[in-house]
Q: What sequence folds into this?
């Protein structure tokens, strides 16, 4: 599931994927974050999720993003 999303390259439909990512498990989100440094659109999407869509709080997801991409 995660790799299918990455292979699709997030071409343009960020809001669609935001809805999709909202349903992923915590571990699946962590796996996506690990790839964020190589996929800039994914990185931006995860920031968007941090403030809008994810079941985690914004601050929790931002901490997760920065810990896996710094």
A:
């Amino acid at each position: 599931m995660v790799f299918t999303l990455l292979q699709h390259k997030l071409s343009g439909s960020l809001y669609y994927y935001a809805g999709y990512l909202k349903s992923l498990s915590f571990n699946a989100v962590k796996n996506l974050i690990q790839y964020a440094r190589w996929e800039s659109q994914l990185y931006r999407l995860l920031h968007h999720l941090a403030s809008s869509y994810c079941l985690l709080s914004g601050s929790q997801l931002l901490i997760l993003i920065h810990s896996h991409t710094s």
User: Anything to note?
Assistant: Helices lie at 2-7, 14-22, 26-35, 40-51, 58-69.
